Structure formats: C-alpha cells, structure tokens
C-alpha cells in the first residue's frame, strides 16, 4: 500500500526548546558540524489504492487542518514515500 509522508515544523519565529537542547548537546557528543537544530513532526498516511492528485490534495488539506497547528507550525512536505526507501 502506498504511503504519503507529511512533515510539519515549527514556524521560524516560534521557540523550539527541544531543538535547542539537542543542538546544545551535539558538540558534547563530538558532533561539531551543526549550528542549529529544529525538531518537527512526521506523519505517515497509508493509502488504500492509487495515490492520485486528488488523494495528494486531500492529504495536504488534512495536513493543514488536522495534523498541524497553523498558528505555530508550517506543513513543509506532503509527498509519496518512494518504494525504494525500504524499512529499517
């Protein structure tokens, strides 16, 4: 079954304490290449059937109206998960 992935991130002007905590600890763990971290959310919507433009449009609407809080978050990605992504 196809899967649509929705990524939601806090708006840039919103404080991200979890991202700040992660960023503060990266150098302590030896990771010095990263300047900042923003922590977001990922949703996976399983589709029963073919993913058409109509289904993608419906997923975008769901993302904007139900999966995110438009006051503090942006929907940054709505896409079909490729079959070659594999599962861990």
Automatic annotation (TrEMBL):
Q: Which domain of life is it from?
A: Bacteria
The catalysed reaction is: N(2)-formyl-N(1)-(5-phospho-beta-D-ribosyl)glycinamide + L-glutamine + ATP + H2O = 2-formamido-N(1)-(5-O-phospho-beta-D-ribosyl)acetamidine + L-glutamate + ADP + phosphate + H(+)
Q: Which InterPro entries match?
A: PurS, PurS-like_sf
Main location as per UniProt = cytoplasm
Q: What is its EC number?
A: 6.3.5.3
Where is it located?
A: Cytoplasm
Any idea which UniProt keywords this protein has?
ATP-binding, Cytoplasm, Ligase, Nucleotide-binding, Purine biosynthesis
Molecular function (GO) terms listed?
phosphoribosylformylglycinamidine synthase activity
- Pfam families, alphabetically? PurS
Q: In which pathway does it act?
A: Purine metabolism; IMP biosynthesis via de novo pathway; 5-amino-1-(5-phospho-D-ribosyl)imidazole from N(2)-formyl-N(1)-(5-phospho-D-ribosyl)glycinamide: step 1/2
Q: How does it assemble?
A: Part of the FGAM synthase complex composed of 1 PurL, 1 PurQ and 2 PurS subunits.
The family line of this record is: Belongs to the PurS family.
Q: Which HAMAP family does UniProt cross-reference here?
A: PurS (MF_01926)
User: So what does this one do?
Assistant: Part of the phosphoribosylformylglycinamidine synthase complex involved in the purines biosynthetic pathway. Catalyzes the ATP-dependent conversion of formylglycinamide ribonucleotide (FGAR) and glutamine to yield formylglycinamidine ribonucleotide (FGAM) and glutamate. The FGAM synthase complex is composed of three subunits. PurQ produces an ammonia molecule by converting glutamine to glutamate. PurL transfers the ammonia molecule to FGAR to form FGAM in an ATP-dependent manner.
Q: What is this protein identified as?
A: Phosphoribosylformylglycinamidine synthase subunit PurS
Taxonomy of the source species: Bacteria, Bacillati, Actinomycetota, Actinomycetes, Micrococcales
């Amino acid at each position: 079954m196809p899967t649509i992935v929705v990524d939601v991130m806090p708006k840039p002007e919103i404080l991200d304490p979890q991202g700040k905590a992660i960023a503060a600890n990266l150098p302590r763990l030896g990771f010095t290449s990263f300047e900042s971290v923003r922590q977001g959310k990922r949703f996976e919507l399983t589709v029963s059937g073919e993913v058409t433009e109509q289904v993608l449009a419906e997923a975008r609407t769901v993302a904007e109206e139900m999966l995110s809080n438009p006051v503090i978050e942006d929907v940054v990605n709505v896409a079909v998960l490729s079959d070659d992504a594999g599962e861990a």
